[in-house]
Amino acid sequence: MSAAELWAKGNYGEIARQLEPAAQALVEAATVVADERVLDVGAGDGNLAIAAARRGAHVVAVDISPQLVARGRSRTAGLDIDWVEGDALGLPFPDGTFDAALSAFGVVYAPEPDRAAAEQFRVVRGGGVVGLTAWTPESFSGLASEAIARHAQIVEGHRPDSWGNEEIARQRLGTHGEVSTLERRVIRRQFASVDAWWKHADRFAPPLAALREAVDPHVYERLHVDLVELAQHFARPVPEGVELQQEYLLAIARKP
Fold this sequence. Notes:
With 256 residues, this protein is an alpha/beta fold. It has a domain of 177 residues: Rossmann fold, CATH 3.40.50.150. Helix content is 41%, strand content 26%. The chain is built from eleven helices and eight strands. Strands 1, 2, 3, 4, 5, 6, 7 and 8 form an eight-stranded mixed β-sheet that branches.
């Protein structure tokens, strides 16, 4: 299954709403200011693009999924955001087009990470910023990705949480620029219960929707059991139910 086909499954927008704080944090860390040209790579339906546009930037959002591009265009109507269908491994822009190329949990899914990093730097001007967020390998999302990979490989590519390893991120970004920020941060997602989390993920998460279609029901049920056990390990009680703390790495580098 291609990446474009995978991310058209489920409803990524419902998952992405709870990831907005990370997109906002990345835009702030990149010190995006008014009138800058910002590229959102693997934009989904626009979390980071919206955060940058609200700071007065001129934003281009690119995603490999035509469905997400259409949803993003609808969601961001009225903002200074242009939407383009494109691949992080071959961004459809000339060299040095942007002041910043940023990606919140997007470019990390590209199957050739070194090539994807090179492309982000290529389209940024000298002195410009490249930044991304990625789940750390030992985070809830990182371990969930590992569990999914144990049961089935539904799309070709590396483990996205490899970007969440500081040394790997430093090497990949440092090949092309000066790494200035590698910070571990946390997103807190709240649900009525672990079972409510599972129902939400099962209904909306594109990788789970794709896997449900691709594998034997018994395989999917074993994955269900594994993921619920993992969520129970990470869940912490709060007045509203449970909270899942999901650690991620925020990385920033500057092009010479």
